[in-house]
Amino acid sequence: MANFDTGSTGFMLLATSLVMLMTPGLAFFYGGLAGKRNILGIMIQSFVSMGITTILWYVCGYSLCFSGNQMGGIIGDLNKCFMHGVDLNTPFPGNNKMPEFVFFAYQMMFAIITPALITGAFINRITFKAYLVFLVVWQVLVYYPFAHMVWGGGLLFQWGVRDFAGGIVVHATAGFAALASVIYVGKRRDRESPPNSIPLIAIGTGLLWFGWYGFNAGSELDVDAITGQAFINTDVAASFAAITWLAIEWSLVKKPKFVGLLTGAVAGLATITPAAGYVTLNSAVIIGIAAGAVCYLAVSLKNRMGWDDALDVWGVHGIGGCLGTVLLGVYASKAINATGADGLMLGGTTFFMHQLIAVVGACIYAFIFTYAMLAIINFVTKVKVGEQEETAGLDESIHGEQAYDAGVV
């Protein structure tokens, strides 16, 4: 029996549980923002990812992300499909203090939530069958390659690109896939549908914020000073972003909006994600303020452009992930994390350019691939819901259920 470190193993199991909790948190967040006829339709898209992604991750996902190096470092191999060759005594190659099974589980939670992020953009406009196909194909051909290239020792990692917990791999790819989805499916027929439950949005935000400590601090894959740095950077960036968003919106609309405060917090969490374990606390403050301001402006731009990204996935996650990745290129410090790099402020011009090129390339690929993929899926099964289904709401027309009893609400 292998002698693993109980502290590191226990912490990573806790971090895994926290990241798992983020997907139900996302379902509550999106469910609260949705109109009352589409609550279940958006929530099931998050929860079904927990089932299908787990199956896919076990069959081939983990292997394609974290085994071997094929196609010039773009994707892994199939040697660890069905966890072949891995047993309870197999140590994780990146940290032999814990079993590989724990790393398998931790990374699986990232794979689960990433495609679920996209769903907020096309709420009440896509059929459930088409979403299931989308869920599988998008992971295999977008998420897996970028997870391998950045975290699996692939092409971008070898090029010097760094992404502590998912600015490129999770948020940028999901955000620009969301924008492509919105442009493909078009606008909602009823765009005036208000959030059905702001308290539910608050519960979702609380679960996301809580889970994000596992998302970011756990990405150190050990228990050390960098783990603590990533933890506090996460909280500080989210807090500064939330207050920045609140202040901007309050000054413009003359009312302090609770949904704005909550959205700003999520923007800060997304933006600090790639930099959490590579920057100082003071840099995290700057990143948080930038997140609140830039993501607010991105959402305003989306509104002016008429893009019907219903729950602001592009403005919050897409732009937040891009901003955080670029600011990592500015503020990274080897004094904080020797496995990182020195950013532009410390003379790291090459590192900054690599970060910029990598995130722009990821966004372009995710956008083009997602748009083309939806067009192809439409030949297999209808992507867009019909007018009657959309008018009635997807809860009733597709799922045959209602979130609330009509006599109560």
SSE layout and pairings?
Blueprint: H1 6-33, H2 39-66, E1 91-92, E2 95-99, H3 100-118, H4 128-151, H5 155-158, H6 167-185, H7 198-217, H8 225-253, H9 258-272, H10 281-305, H11 313-331, H12 349-380, H13 387-392, H14 394-397
Antiparallel strand pairs: 1-2
Helix pairs in contact: 1-2, 1-3, 1-7, 2-3, 2-4, 3-4, 3-6, 4-6, 4-12, 6-11, 6-12, 7-8, 7-9, 8-9, 8-10, 9-10, 9-11, 10-11, 11-12
Please give a quick description of this structure.
With 409 residues, the protein is mostly helical. The protein is built from 14 helices and 2 strands.
* CATH-defined architecture: Orthogonal Bundle
Radius of gyration from CA coordinates: 20 Å
Largest sheet: 2 strands, antiparallel
- What is the residue-averaged pLDDT? 96
Number of domains: 1
Low-confidence stretches: none
Report the top-level CATH class: Mainly Alpha
Number of separate strands: 2
Going across the biggest sheet, name each strand in turn. 1-2
Question: In CATH terms, what is the fold-level topology?
Answer: Ammonium transporter fold
CATH superfamily: Ammonium transporter AmtB like domains
Distance between the termini: 57 Å
Strand content: under 5%
Give the helix level as a range of percent.
Answer: 55-70%
> What structural category arises from helix and sheet content?
mainly alpha
Q: What does the overall shape look like? A: globular
Tally of alpha and pi helices: 14
What is the H/E string?
HHEEHHHHHHHHHHHH
Description:
- This protein has 409 residues and is mostly helical.
- It has a single domain (6-397), classed as Ammonium transporter fold (Orthogonal Bundle), CATH 1.10.3430.10.
- The chain contains 14 helices and two strands, in the order ααββαααααααααααα.
- It has a two-stranded antiparallel sheet with strand order 1-2.
- β1 and β2 form a beta hairpin.
- α4 packs antiparallel against α6, α4 (128-151) packs antiparallel against α12 (349-380) and α9 (258-272) crosses α11 (313-331).
- The protein is globular, with a radius of gyration of 20 Å.
- The chain starts with 5 loop residues before the first helix and ends in a 12-residue tail after the last helix.
- The relative contact order is 0.15.
- The mean pLDDT is 96.
